Prior knowledge:
The protein has 15 helices and 16 strands. By secondary structure, the chain is an alpha+beta fold. The protein has three domains: 70 residues; 161 residues, Phosphorylase Kinase, domain 1, CATH 3.30.200; 185 residues, Transferase(Phosphotransferase) domain 1 (Transferase(Phosphotransferase), domain 1). The chain is rod-shaped and about 150 Å long. The C terminus is likely disordered.
Amino acid sequence: MMKLQLKVALAFLIALIWIQQGLCDELSAKSGMNNWTCTCSASYQGDQIYIKSKCSTSCDCSPAGGQSGVTWTCTCSSDGLPKVATGIQDTTCFTACNCTSGSLTDVQATRKHISSKIVVVILLLCVILTTLAFLASIACYLYRKDKCLIQSPVFLSDRETSCNSSANLISHRASSVSETKIRVDSLINPISGCFHMASFLCGSKTEIIHGTLLLFTYSELEHATNKFSHSNLIGLGGNSYVYRGQLKDGRTVAVKQLKAQGGPDADFLFLTEVELLAKLHHCHIVPLLGYCSEFHGKFSEKLLVFEYMPNGNLRDCLDGVSGETMNWQTRVTIAIGAARGLEYLHESAAPRILHRDVKSNNILMDENWTAKITDLGMAKRLRGDGVPSSSSSPARMQGTFGYFAPEYAMIGRASLMSDVFSFGVVLLELITGRQPIHKSTNKGEESLVLWATPRLQDSRRVIPELPDPRLKGNFPRRRVANNGLPGKGVPAVGS
């Protein structure tokens, strides 16, 4: 886009210089024809008044004296010369004149004077056009700020999102939510600024999306993340990078930069994810604050902006220093929060959603250790019968190894129960502290599920072998021996 603007500006400048040169040449040519200088002579000394009035009407002549007769010096304009006698009737006029054109210095001086005037006019025009462009840019910015989704995000409180019961969640599904219109025919517009506003004014197709989103520019997010520096990198996925960023208003956010994806459906898939995330409002789902979609150079940049979770993801917490101090009650609270978030996606979201990549890395914790589900890049909408949309034939498996349900691994078709199975693996991670795929010297014990199954089936091995050693025995032994993790009862997700 910048190259196109530069070409237009250069073409405009060349055209102005060409017009200036043409005008200067034309006017200079006319000015060079002025000031004929003539030396004329008369046959005898006549009446000077008569000669001036009858013989030099277009010239300024004055007698210069001479030895043989009278000599006159005349300065004439381009449209007239002194009158020379053609017969005996005009003997009182000049008998002969020797005329030459004006000097070259006069012509150059005239051209320089005219050229200076044109340069001044062109500079004034440039100043006026630049001022108008600046005012137009300000008008566009104010319009987009007021009309194009530039408003503070509004999030519902825990009570309003009904985090505590499935019945309230279902009733919330039918409640009214704030609505915002965004363009869906072309999220990526190669022409920004006023051209974007013009296309918006021309009646572009719109669709209602629940919630309030911010429309960020690429430069804003680039500045917020210190040009996407490695020091701000907080997460790395299969098709994205996640950076910590700080907005101009001081808020800390998580910026998810999607890797470039080709194909005609890339824009549509991004729009689908934005639309899906914008409709989700729950205290155990990481909220989407806004998005950015624009061309930067030759590439289309697609970015999602989420609320920042200072305690990171569950897997890193279990592996790091936090795992040493994470007590049993905190683990139970995390499990219940993640279960409620998954329940919301399966039962109460509109439309209902199949996550397809439930894992400990996709469960984030805020400053109060409230668990929130994130990363719905692989999610699918569920039809009324509970079958994912566009799933008439088995698709290639998507997700993370170690979390696959057996039926998903066999037929390659995800379902609500495959999400529940993956969540069960997360529960085992909370209980044991182990990773889903663990390097082991014992064959067949690399998988957390395969390792835990015989211990869960033998009540004598549950207490001594299953819980995380870092708990140091500080957990309700009888409850764990009988029911596993959910001491207060984890909701029956997807049942």
